[in-house]
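Task card 7
Instruction: Convert sequence to structure tokens.
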Amino acid sequence: MIKINRLRDNELKILAETIRDKIFVPTYSRKTTVFLCGADRSDKKTGRHKMMELFKKHARYELLYPEDIFDDLLVGQGQYSLLDLEDILAESVDSIVLFPESPGSFAELGAFASNKRLANKLICVCQHKYEKRKSFINYGPIRLIKASDTGKVFNIVYDNLASDIIKDKIYKKINSAITAIKKKNPIKRNVANIMETENFVLPCIYLIELVPAWELYRLVELATGQEKRSSEIATKASISRLIESHHINRTPKGYTVTKQGINRIKRTLRATYLDVVRMELINTQYRKNKMIKGANF
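Output:
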């Protein structure tokens, strides 16, 4: 069996910078990203489901869901907590729209409202019938959101989100709040943005044969300059989404790209340099003492 040489750290740095600067393209540069929280989105009776259907009618929005991004990070022993993910989330989405209608969404509301940066991006859409109730939610998180610079609280009747007469008025209010939040709290759409990291990770897996997870963590760390823990979180979230979307496979020896993943790379990223970089990597991995040279890219 031919031995594959693992890349040295200085070679990983050259590769990370090349992919970041010459291949990576952010997906959501022309979209407004909204983190939509609440009860089970498949339940048509919930406010979250109704709001999801309303948002989908407007092309400017890209909806993101906590269960799609963070579930694999939050479960299991030695995994991360919601608090670990808060600052990463604040740097990655334009706004958070939250419907407090389930135990999970109550926890998210408490955590997000307690973080000043997240509170400024938070739009809490409450059931109107609970507006005057003496409750922890009203006296705690809701007050924190109202005290923030740009966070908003709306009290509505959730069923009105399905009303042809009223739903457009509700949408306009929420849309205006999101626009104001986005203007005052801009985000960077680069590799460090957890919603964009997968567009860096995917070509890394394509270019490096049977790349192990630790090497991907290091590549993201070198490309972003962020701390190791943040790089691991962003990379793990990206790997989960890429596996779920059938763009990569996990094998005992490392990760590989599927045909669907290759098509995505060629369709959405700057593919001009891919073949040049891939040939250089093949030479490095299979020829003893051969090193990557940045000038070759």
